[in-house]
Every structure is written in structure tokens, then in C-alpha cells.
Amino acid sequence: MASLQHSQAIKGAKVLMVGAGGIGCELLKTLALSDFQDIHIIDMDTIEVSNLNRQFLFRQSHVGQSKAKVARDAVLRFRPHISITPYHANAKDSNFNVDFFKQFNVVLNGLDNLDARRHVNRLCLAAEVPLVESGTTGFLGQVTVHVKGKTECYECQPKPAPKTYPVCTITSTPSKFVHCVVWAKDLLFAKLFGDKNQDNDLNVRSNDAARSSEHAGDAFEWSGNEDLEQYGRGVYDHVFGYNIELALSNEETWKNRNKPRPIYCRDVLPDRMTQQNGNVDKTDDLSSASAMASLGLKNPQDIWCLMENTKVFIEALKLFFTKRRKEIGNLSFDKDDQLAVEFVTAAANIRAASFNIPLHSLFEAKGIAGNIVHAVATTNAIVAGLIVIEAIKVLKKDTESYRMTYCLEHPSKKMLLMPVEPFEPNKSCCVCSKTPLSLEINTHRSKLRDFVEKIVKAKLGMNSPLIMHATALLYEVGDDLEENEIANYTANLEKVLSELPPPVTDGTVLTVEDLQQEFTCNIHIKHREEFDEEKEPDGMVLSGWTQAPPEKKDGKTSIGNGASTSKSLPTKPGITEIDIEVKEISDVSPGTKRKLSEFSDGSTLDQSSDVDVTRNNKKTQKHDEDDDLVMLDHWDSNMRKKH
Ligand SMILES: Nc1ncnc2c1ncn2[C@@H]1O[C@H](COP(=O)(O)OP(=O)(O)OP(=O)(O)O)[C@@H](O)[C@H]1O
Ligand SMILES: [Zn+2]
Questions:
Q1: Catalytic site positions
Q2: Contact of 396 with 5, CB cutoff 8 Å
Q3: Distance from the CA of 461 to the center of ligand 2, in angstroms?
Q4: Residue ranges of region Disordered (predicted)?
Q5: Ligand 1 atom with the shortest distance to the CA of 618
Q6: Please, are residues 23 and 134 in contact by the beta-carbon 8 Å criterion?
Q7: CA of 112 to the centre of ligand 1 (A)
């Protein structure tokens, strides 16, 4: 029986849930059944067909409706007297500001991306509202508690960087199927169907740059009246034939590598698939826009031969231009978009064939392209239960018993759940401890735009940044700016740092601020001439976020409360940096506080991705470059998991 204190804490609480997906639906049900009376839910999504078998509250008839509203209605059916307030909105919208957050006693995250997690973390810090964070990826899960001044914040532990590949591996020298998928999705798909103004490295680097770009301009543009099959064949020949020939002419590249072979459409598919101006159906029935369906290819687990991939490539391209023409120019790859997955699979396979890399099925390519980890409903349910347990402790201010709990894939010492005492705030965290950062950058070459995109937005997760050099404003985003201010900031973006008014040079301290997040940090600029293209592809290095843990005299890494440093927790599931201090769990009497160091399997999930641990990116499953093992590296804002 719950004590009076316990039930009063629950009944009097006003709770904000962010995310009504796999974890969020379980969480809402568990909150309602635990007697919570006042729950607010923010989710920006509507229900998709792909959510139906993954989120138990949703039905076919709900497709297209707000997740938050449907989840509310489903739970009100068995708890009609509680108050559930849904918001069909992005948690980053400006109306969810610090004052909005202040009305809640606790915030519970069931998110799927790093960006939103960081944003909510900052608002919780600013509003001084405790946050319970969560993430799952397959069988792995974690729940952590973040209370300002008492425990580390969500950003105290650096998140592992998303797996990235050197540009030249993707554009010119792929050696794994994943490189071909990244090329097909981020370059070719983006070039043909995405925003035309975006930078795109699609053109093969060549000494003859002028010739290359001249040719590229023609091949990718559809004139509007050109026969679509002919256009598709032109694109095909350009990227799989001509560009490969061009790359081959760069002999240095191939001295120690296997040469690719150019592939031309006529050699694979001599005959046209349709008559000129032929049988392309011009209806707008999006559900039938599938190249596989048109071509009679049924099994997504089949590996198509080169000819089948070629047919899917041409057919998918034609379908985009006939059935989804309005979307062209605005599309970005979505793993739930069947036609996009078909196109990317075919393009990746044709490129793989060219580079003598084994071909893969659509099912496999989709998994790689969408960074999919199949979700386990039970893990979501366990994690939702743990969130409620921690939320109740927070409401009772039972600080001593807060735990971060890790759900492991295999029992370790007969335990599947590993509770660990939370760490103290990291004194070098720039978010909760306001510690300055330092940035090595070439101030003569890097533009303000590079700094804004790669550091302020990507690394610091700011949405509406303001950048100051002493009292001078270099850049600002906002709805209330005057035209001349906008013109001024736009011009600044294109200037290299050392030419800004006033110049940003070695020794400058920039102040970067996001007013909505109430997050400010100072960045010390250090000029550096050269960067390693492979290891430092951004051309700049941000540091000072966290410091290495103190070395103990015996050489062991210090772990436990107070040692909340970058090394104190393993950051990837299965990678145990702390095996050195393993204790038998059986030695720990029930009720004894445990630290992660006491468990031999210290699997830890990073919550940046939707699984991010999903997470920063959904816990994300990536295929490791070196051994084709599926690796969880949790953090790209684009990463996704599957339920
Ligand atoms: N910035 C945000 N504001 C509001 N809701 C968000 C934000 N970012 C993510 N979400 C929501 O968080 C939820 C995360 O849930 P989950 O990871 O189960 O995703 P899903 O959409 O249900 O599944 P999948 O990503 O595999 O399609 C989603 O419903 C998503 O809409
Ligand atoms: Zn912190």
C-alpha cells in the first residue's frame, strides 16, 4: 500500500511528458494507472501506418491524427476522471518557454532525438524542474534522473559523435555497402528530389572540375517535357557511367585500390521499359507509388540482380516525377517512405556493383539507411515503469534513492536491470556549470556560416542563436528583426571570421546565446592553420566540454559520485570502460546502493538518439565500417529506431 505521502505526491503533481511514441504511450498508461491526475503531453507527430503495430494505443482509424491527442483519448477511456492535456506541437516551439516549464513538478522525456533532448534539458535547468530522461534501443534501455545542482544534467556526459564517413569515401572510394547507401541517400536522392540550394558533394572530384560540373548541371535537371525514362537513363549514365570514368582518370586514387567499373544503362537494360510517352499512370494515388509493386517484385528480403536494380531505379525515378511531382525539391529521405527506400536501395546496389561490393536486399538497405533498431515493446514498458518510479522519488524529494537504471540485453550476474547512483553535476559541463569552451578554427578560412552551422547549431544544439563579440552583435535569429538587421547578419554569414566587423581572431572570446533555452556560453577562439580532413572533417575542433577523469595513483579510472567525467561511464552499449573495478553483484546486499562499476556488464546507452539510446541521435544502429558488425552509436539527430 502506498503511504499517504506517496499518494499525495502523485495526486498533487502536474507532469509534463515530451514524446508520445513507443515509450511515451507506455508511460502515459503507467502514469494514469499509478493515479497521476494532471498530465500534459507534447508530441509533434501524427500517427503513421508504421506506428500501428509498434504503439499499442494506436489503431488504423487513427492514422493522420495527432499522437498526443489519440494517446490522451485512449487513456481517458479507462481513467476518465484524470486531466490529460495534449499539445500537437514541437517541444522546441517558442511558446514552450521557461515559464511554461515552470508550472510542472517534473518533466518526463520519451523522445527520439538528441536535439529535442538537449533542448528540454536546458529548459528544465532554466526552469529548475527535475527531468527524468529515457531511451530504449531493442533490448537495451535506460532511465536517468536530472535535478539541477544535485545530479548531472543530460549533457554532462559527452555523447559519442555520430558515425560519419570521410567525404571522399562516400563520393569517390566506397569500400562497404553502407558507403553506397549514404551516397544514394544523402547525395543522389538529395540532389534529385531535395532542396536544390543545398550544398551537394555529388560530383566526383576531378582535376577537370569545369567539365565535371558542366556535365552535372545537364544530367540532373529534368526539362519538363523530356521523356522520363530517357531522363532516368541519363541520370543513371551520368552517375554510374560518366562519373566513374571521370574518377578513373584520376590515376593516383586507384594505385592501391580496386578500380570501379563504369556501368551504362544500355548495357544492363538495352530495351526501354515503357513505350515513348508510354504507360505511366498519372493518378495521384500515393499508396500505389511503389516501383517494386509496378515491377512485380514482392519480397523485400530478395537481393535484386543488377538488371532488377536498374529497373527499380528508373521506375522509382519515374514514379517520383509522375505521382509525387509536387514534393520534388522538398523531399528528404525518410525510412518510412517506400518509394524513397526503393530508389535508395537500387542506387546503392548499382554503385555497389560498380565498386565490386556485395549487393543487399531492400530490407537490409532500409535498415542501414534508416539506422533502424527493431524496438522491443517489453523494453519500452519496463523503461516506462522505471520512469514512473523515478518520477515518484523526485516528487517525494527522496534524493538519496534516485537511480539511473540500465536495462541490459543479457542478465549480468542474474540481473537485467542495473541501478546506479546518479553522478553529481560535471563541473566542466558548459550547459549546467557554464564552463567556457575553446574552439580551434582557421579564422582566415572559416566563414561565420560554418561556425553557426557546425558549432552553434550542430554541436551546441541552439535553435535561435545570438552571437556576440564583446558588445557587437555578429548574428541573431528572430521574428522581430528589422530588414537592415537581417541583411547585415546574412552578409556576416558569408564573411570569414577574421574579416567580420569586428574581426574574430586568435584570442577572441565569442558569447553565444539561445534566449529561449536560457543557455549562454563563452567560446575562446584559437586560430589553427591546418586540420586533418579525415579526423577533423568539420575543419574545427571544439573542446572543453568535459575533462578527462583524474587518474588514480594506481592508474585506475575513478568512478562514482563526483567522478562524472567523460570516462566515468561507458558511452556505448557493450563497451565497458570500467571492467577494471568489477565487483560480484552477489556481494551486494539488497538495498545497498550500487554504482555502475559494480557490474561486469556496464552496458550504457546514450540517450541522444531516439534510442539515442537512443538516441543523439535513437540509438542508432549503424553498421560499423570495419567489420560489418551492427554497432549502436547513439547519436545522430537523424537516427531512428523502429518499433
Ligand atoms: N521536438 C519534438 N517535439 C515533440 N515531439 C517530438 C520531438 N522530437 C520527437 N518527438 C516525438 O517523440 C516520439 C518518439 O517516439 P519514438 O521514438 O517511439 O518514435 P516513433 O515516431 O513512434 O517511431 P519511429 O521514429 O520509429 O517512426 C515521437 O512520437 C516523436 O514525434
Ligand atoms: Zn551538465
A1: 168
A2: yes
A3: 14
A4: 530-625
A5: 17
A6: yes
A7: 5
| DSSP reduced 3-state for 457 | helix
Q: Which ligand is closest in space to the CA of residue 423?
A: 2
pLDDT of residue 54 exceeding 80, the answer is no
Please give the pLDDT value at position 1.
54
Q: In order of start, what are the domains of the chain with their CATH numbers?
A: 177-356 (1.10.10.520), 437-543 (3.10.290.20)
| DSSP per-residue letters across 503-570 | ---TT-EEEEEETTTTEEEEEEEEE-S---TTT-TTSEEEE-SS-PPPBPTTSPBP-STT--STTSS-
SS3 226: coil
Share of residues in the chain with pLDDT > 70 (%): 79
User: What percent of the chain has pLDDT above 90?
Assistant: 62
pLDDT digits (tens, 9 = 90+) for 586-640: 333 333 333 443 433 333 344 333 333 333 333 333 333 332 222 233 323 333 3
Question: Quick one: angle between helices 67-76 and 22-33, nearest 10?
Answer: 30
Q: How far is the CA of 338 from the centre of ligand 1 (A)?
A: 19
Residue nearest to atom 11 of ligand 1 (CA): 19
Name which of 444, 441, 440 is nearest 495 in CA terms: 444
From the CA of 346, how far away is ligand 1's center (Å)? 28
Contact 619, 606 (CB under 8 A): yes
CB of 341 closer than 8 Å to CB of 364: no
pLDDT tier at 162 (50, 70, 90 boundaries)? low
Q: What is the chain's mean pLDDT, rounded? A: 81
Question: 303-350 pLDDT, tens per residue?
Answer: 999 999 999 999 999 999 999 999 999 999 998 899 999 999 999 999
- Ligand 1 pocket, residues with Cβ under 6 angstroms: 19-22, 24, 42-45, 50-51, 55, 67, 90-92, 111-113, 116, 610, 640-643
* Grid cell in block for residue 35: 493515479
pLDDT of 372 reads: 72
- The closest ligand to the CA of 637 turns out to be 1
Name the residue among 37, 24, 104 with its Cα closest to residue 68.
Answer: 24
Indicate left, alpha or beta for 89 from its phi (over 0: left) and psi (-120 to 50: alpha): beta
Q: Is 90 exceeded by the pLDDT of residue 642?
A: no
- Residue 581 CB neighbours (<10 A): 15
Top mutation candidate among 112, 120, 366 for ligand 1, by most atoms within 8 Å of CB: 112
Rg (CA), the chain: 26
Q: Is 133 helix (H, G, I), strand (E, B) or coil?
A: strand
pTM of the model: 0.69
Ligand nearest, relative to CA of residue 158: 2
Question: Which strand (E) or helix (H) includes residue 22?
Answer: helix 22-33
CA pair distance 328, 17, nearest whole angstrom = 35
Average pLDDT score over residue span 400-424: 92
- Report how far apart, in Å, the C-alpha atoms of 164 and of each of 169, 179, 537, 582 are: 10, 10, 9, 33
Q: What are the CA-CA distances from residue 230 to residues 118, 278, 346 (Å)? A: 47, 12, 18
- Nearest ligand 1 atom to the CA of 642 is 26
Angle made by CA atoms 543, 178, 184, in degrees to the nearest 5: 100
